[in-house]
Amino acid sequence: MITIQGKGVSAGVAAGPLYFYQRAKAEVKRSTSAVFETEWKRFKDAQTKAIEQLGALADKARAEAGDEAALLFETHQLMAEDLDYEEAIEEALRGGINIEAVISDVRDQFAEMFAQMEDAYMQARAADVKDVSNRIIGILTGAVQGGIDSDVPVILAADDLAPSETVQLDKSKILGFITEGGSGSSHTAILARTMGIPAIIGVGDQLKAEYAGREVIVDGGTGTAVLEPDSDTRVYLMKKQEDQRKLQEMLDQLKGKENVTKDGHSIRIYCNIGNPEDVPTVLSNDGGGIGLFRSEFLYLGCDDFPTEDYQFEAYKKVLSDMGGKEVVIRTLDIGADKQIGYFNLPHEENPAMGNRALRICLNRPEIFRTQLRALYRASAYGKLCIMFPMVASVWEVREAKKVCEQVKKELDAEGIAYSSDVQVGIMIETPSAAIISDRLAKEVDFFSCGTNDLTQYTLACDRQNNDLGRFFDPHHPAVLRLLKLVTDNAHKNGIWVGICGELGADLQLTETFLSIGIDELSVSPRAVLPLRRKVRESNVAQVRDRLLGDLLSDQTSV
User: Fold this and answer.
1) Which CATH number is 36-141 given?
2) Best exposed site among 110, 135, 234, 523 by fewest CB in 10 Å?
3) Which run of H or E residues covers position 326?
4) Is 347 marked active-site?
């Protein structure tokens, strides 16, 4: 038995084989003595498999986001069996070069040809031919698509996972996570909490390659992973898993109940999601709405800028599936730890404070307008709120609102329907936004506090750096005082305020948030019912004066 200790960031117990995430590494080697018939058969077999994979992806995209979302994969299917593409490969293959090198050459040749064309549609095909060719090469070389090549669900181990990698994971194959690095607010941790599965981060070099395939039990509550546990440890952990199942059954009895304290104080409990396929989890956990849809994951899942129609179908599906419940969609929030190659962003020494989120949208209005058009078109199918991230100044909000008005005028001129009741709000995640929240409140319909970044910027403490540990303290009185300031300013100006950062699910602070006057908490779907139970057990009248006194007192511990 081997015990591995890290930091638990998503509670629960899960058991299964340990599997190390495999990044696709399709190394192309060149040979000049290949046999044509052999190499051609290899190509046709790989081509067939690629078309099958793309068909499955198209079906998945159609189920999650509609026909437009599936179109990309169907286009790639057609590219994979395009006659000109095949003929170029066949001709080059007769020169005795191995098929991997031939496809690599043809890929570059076709991509260059498309890129030189004047028509924008044909230029976009350059990315398609690259993607299709790389997929076929990956099949030929045994590179794993999506990081997991297993017939059974696994405990997934990795150094850490980038946002673009988490998008492509086959979620049905994952029982839990163990990562060498990461932090409690990393995208791996957020994904685990959304899925409701155990996750442990920061185990460092305790993970060994030779552990692959061996049974492991992870306890996301304690941050402990046990490899090939002895009988007593197995019995203990399996009992803990059963106890958690019974607790969930008890929490399920709270479905349909109100989020109201014993003394009648109510609060809305919404959910954070990253893509349309998360909506069933929101509904099954009785979320009152969606307080944060991270729209950037639509961009992370594409090889090129997602079209207006592609985005429209995704937003429309979420709004329709939520059946009239409020849906807050955050506009594009990339940069910092979420980099996307096709944006061609320059290297920055400090990307967390660089060209990111709303700054990119204002600097590149063509991207912003495309997203806003998709959002407003989708608003006809539900109750939409649009939220701008990373705001620091009033002028940014005014400029963003001007683009909204321009988009609405365009849609009016084109006779395209949209809702006239779309709320526009901002994230409060910079200290500057919190400090001038009295002015910002006059510009928008709501605030939503992103406590992950607010904590990072307030404490000058990188939230992705797990080594900082105790220095990254979301309970710090400076953070809580800013939240109270923001809430007071919001209410003075007649707008509502929520929290969409991970802090919203912290049950140690639920009574503090109720006392401050927060109107809405948006959390991972699995956190809805535990949070509801905490709210229903609370009596704000009994604790408000003490909690607010501690928060504002000069004697508060820092």
Assistant:
1) 1.10.274.10
2) 234
3) strand 326-330
4) no
Among residues 76, 187, 404, 476, which one is catalytic?
A: 187
Q: Provide the β-strand partners of residue 156.
A: 19, 177
Q: Could you say which of 271, 302, 449, 500 is catalytic?
A: 500
* Tally of helices (H runs) and strands (E runs) in the chain: 21, 16
Residues in CB range of 243: below 8 A, 6 or more apart: none
Round the CA-based radius of gyration of the chain to a whole number and report it: 25
DSSP 13-37: EEEEEEEE-----------S---HH
User: Of 472, 516, 510, 471, which is closest to residue 490 (Cα–Cα)?
Assistant: 516
Q: Give the C-alpha separation, 146 to 136, whole Å.
A: 14
Over the chain (558 residues), what is each successive 10-residue block's mean pLDDT? 92 93 76 89 93 82 64 84 92 91 92 81 76 87 75 89 71 90 74 85 89 94 93 93 88 94 96 91 94 90 86 95 96 78 77 82 94 97 97 97 97 96 97 97 97 92 73 91 97 97 91 96 94 96 86 58
The domain segmentation of the chain, as residue ranges, is 2-23+147-243, 36-141, 254-552
Q: Could you tell me the pTM of the whole model?
A: 0.72
The DSSP result for 148-189, as a single string, is ---SS-EEEEES---HHHHHHS-GGGEEEEEESS--TTSHHH
CA-based nearest residue to 268, from 501, 540, 528, 544: 528
Q: Are 269 and 531 in contact (CB under 8 A)?
A: yes
Is 187 a residue of the active site?
Answer: yes
Three-state SS across 186-230?
CHHHHHHHHHCCCEEECCHHHCCHHHCCCEEEEECCCCEEEECCC
2-23+147-243 maps to which CATH number? 3.50.30.10
Q: Which CATH class is domain 254-552?
A: alpha beta
